[in-house]
Amino acid sequence: MLGGVLATLGDHLGSKVGRARLRLLGLRPKRTAVLITVATGSLISALSFGLLIGVNRQWRRGLFELGKIEASLRSNRKDLEAAQQRSRELEDRTANLDASVESLSSSRSQLLSELDVLQRQIDRQQEALQRLQSSVLAFRRGEVAITTAAPLAVARLVRQDGSKIERSIEQLLNQANRTVYARVLPDEDPSRQLLQVPISEVEKLRNALQTQDDLVVIVRSAANVLMGEQRVLAFIDLRPNRLVVRRDQVLATMVIEASDRSADGVREALNLLVASARSELQSQGALEEAIQLDRNAMATLSEELAQGQRWDRAVIEVVARDDARTANPVILSLRWVDRPETGDAP
Predict the structure, then answer these.
(1) What is the Cα–Cα distance from 72 to 336, expressed in whole angstroms?
(2) What is the distance in angstroms between the CA of the first residue and the CA of the last residue of the chain?
(3) Whether the predicted pLDDT of 169 surpasses 50
(4) What is the rounded CA–CA span in Å between residue 185 and residue 144?
(5) Ranges 44-58, 128-142, 165-179: which has the least confidence
(6) 190 exposure class (CB count in 10 Å sphere: 0-12, 13-18, 19+)
(7) Which among 50, 169, 173, 265 could disulfide-bond with 260, CB atoms 3.0 to 4.6 Å apart, if both were Cys?
């Protein structure tokens, strides 16, 4: 509105100057009128611009602070881009951290599970150690009635049908139970089942009797048993009844030098030789409890080696007296291979 009023006044003033034929700065009246009109228009524009600047703070800031605003905008835009880049990096790091946390959580769960398993193993080992310590103390006090893996019943069984299998198993377990009573509760009659054999062991025996022709079955104690115990856990040892040694088969050999011919030295050497023969027999399938030694032959040989004929070195062998299968006893005998035929006592 102000511009319109000032424009009207300027035009009116120009017209007045033109009709009055005024001269300004030596100009012709027409030129003077044009000059006044231009000056009036310029004044109108200046007044309008000044009024807008004076009244409107945003225009004033836009006019005098435009450069700063543009610079600030550029700076803010760069900061925004940097912040966005930083935000993307943080998002990537967050994703990586989340993955790491998930992996660590999974590892922690696995470690806790392994720790639990190890703890259970440690507990079982501690229990076993306590039982072993108790067994050792009981051994010292003479209270152990049955040792670990001791045979409670031994039987030779052949392939059978269903009804005979069950009867044979029952007879074998009853025999083992009577043995347990005789050793653990010698003053009581076998009125109940002290022997406990896992079902899996019985099933193993049942399957073997259906598929194998000739077996040696041994019921063995699973742990040391003290006098008076009310429960004896056992397992079943199955072995094929086969030829394990032949007559005169050499099971162990040793050379004894004359320098070791003292009674103690000879006895120690022969005991070591017999132990080696026992180990060899067991590796061939013989039962430990079935191995017997001809002690008279051993005593005679010990005396001959220690006090008998003159000799520099003696080759001693342990041999089987007869053929023996798994179910048979194996009798061991000793012989002096290079025994001197004649000679005087030193």
Answers:
(1) 114
(2) 157
(3) yes
(4) 12
(5) 128-142
(6) middle
(7) 265
Q: Are the beta carbons of 217 and 165 closer than 8 angstroms?
A: no
DSSP string, 49-82: HHHHHHH-HHHHHHHHSHHHHHHHHHHHHHHHHH
Residue 147 has pLDDT above 80, yes or no: yes
Q: In this structure, how many other beta carbons lie within 10 angstroms of the beta carbon of residue 301?
A: 21
pLDDT higher than 50, residue 346: no
CA angle 228/233/238 to nearest 5° reads 135
- What DSSP string runs through 234-279? EEEEEEE--EEE-TT-EEEEEEEEGGG-SHHHHHHHHHHHHHHHHH
Predicted local distance difference test score (pLDDT) of residue 342: 52
Sign of CA dihedral 277, 281, 282, 283: positive
Neighbours of 115 (CB within 10 A): 10
Predicted confidence (pLDDT) per residue in 263-305, tens digit: 777 888 888 888 888 888 888 888 887 888 888 888 888 877 7
- What's the whole-model pTM score? 0.49
